[in-house]
Write a structure and sequence with these properties.
Helices cover about 25% and strands about 25% of the residues. The protein has about 260 residues and is an alpha+beta fold. It has a single domain (about 10-255), classed as Creatine Amidinohydrolase (Alpha-Beta Complex). A 5-stranded antiparallel beta sheet has the order 8-7-9-14-15. A hairpin with a 6-residue loop joins strand 7 (about 175-180) and strand 8. Helix 1 (about 10-30) runs antiparallel to helix 2 and helix 3 (about 125-145) runs antiparallel to helix 4 (about 150-165). The longest helix has 21 residues, at about 10-30. It is globular, with a radius of gyration of 17 Å. It starts with 8 loop residues before the first helix and ends in a 7-residue tail after the last strand. The structure holds magnesium ion (2 copies). One magnesium ion binds next to loops.
Length: about 260
């Protein structure tokens, strides 16, 4: 993690454009994620969208935190009990009833964007639908708390409160983060905790807020196969939504929005 860096309105405008590339790509995936599509095809589509928009994939070649092979894909594509960092594969086909999280990063004009959404593949069971809706809404609650004068932990508290009211759990091992000319900056933005703690939110901060929510227990395990994929220890399903938010005097500004579907 690098230090906390505040952004000027001009920098926030570039980050808005960077994130718009991702929000448009995520919106375009809504009609493309259907039974029979492979996670590798999703990755190929995301890479094409990012490059055609003049961006560079930010995750491709990302160094492994403990010295393993760098991340091979443009997108992290995580299916069902996979939480984050799923490695895309041409031979992994999605089936009706799956849920799939697609997380993507871009480098554009010197600044990063980072965004994720979880999709239902065809018809999914009711609990999975509830998981997606509760996770999406918990992100909105977190965004609503991202206001000048609040503290970082107010965001996580809002997320956790909403998630647990639905009987689901929040992942602790992975957290949101500051973002700018580096993909991961200070402060860390946990999705849990007591209100009124950690750094005070000030104008010019840009935060990637990204709840990861499990149907069952919050515990995480790392896949031994690829060294990247993090999944739930109890095998329950997990969802992930992420946006970048600028802290402004007028309130939280979701970068890359509005977007036409
Ligand atoms: Mg991300
Ligand atoms: Mg992120």
């Amino acid at each position: 993690m690098s230090r906390l860096v505040l952004k000027s309105p001009a920098e926030i405008e570039i980050m808005h454009q960077a994130n718009m590339i991702l929000r448009r790509t995520l919106a375009a995936l809504r009609t493309r994620i259907v039974p029979g599509v492979s996670t590798g095809e999703i990755d190929g589509f995301v890479e094409k969208c990012i490059r055609e928009a003049g961006g560079e994939p930010a995750f491709k070649g990302y160094p492994h935190p403990s010295g393993g092979a760098p991340f091979p894909g443009t997108a992290c594509v995580s299916v069902n009990d996979e939480i984050v960092h799923g490695v895309p594969s041409e031979t992994r086909e999605l089936r009706t009833g799956d849920i799939v999280s697609v997380d993507m990063g871009v480098l554009y004009k010197g600044y990063y964007g980072d965004s994720a959404e979880t999709y239902a593949v065809g018809e999914v069971d009711e609990q999975s639908r509830e998981l997606l809706e509760a996770t999406r809404e918990s992100l909105q609650r977190g965004i609503d708390a991202a206001r000048v004068g609040n503290r970082v932990s107010d965001i996580g508290h809002a997320v956790q409160t909403h998630v647990e009211a639905h009987g689901f759990s929040v992942v602790r091992e992975f957290v949101g983060h500051g973002i700018g000319a580096s993909l991961h900056e200070d402060p860390q933005v946990p999705n849990f905790g007591s209100p009124g703690r950690r750094e005070r939110l000030v104008e010019g901060m840009v935060l990637a807020i990204e709840p990861m929510v499990n149907i069952g227990a919050p515990d995480v395990m790392l896949s031994a196969d690829d060294g990247w994929t993090a999944r739930t220890r109890d095998g329950s399903r997990s969802a992930h939504f992420e946006v970048c938010v600028a802290i402004t005097k007028k309130g939280p500004q979701i970068l890359g929005e509005p977007v036409e579907g």
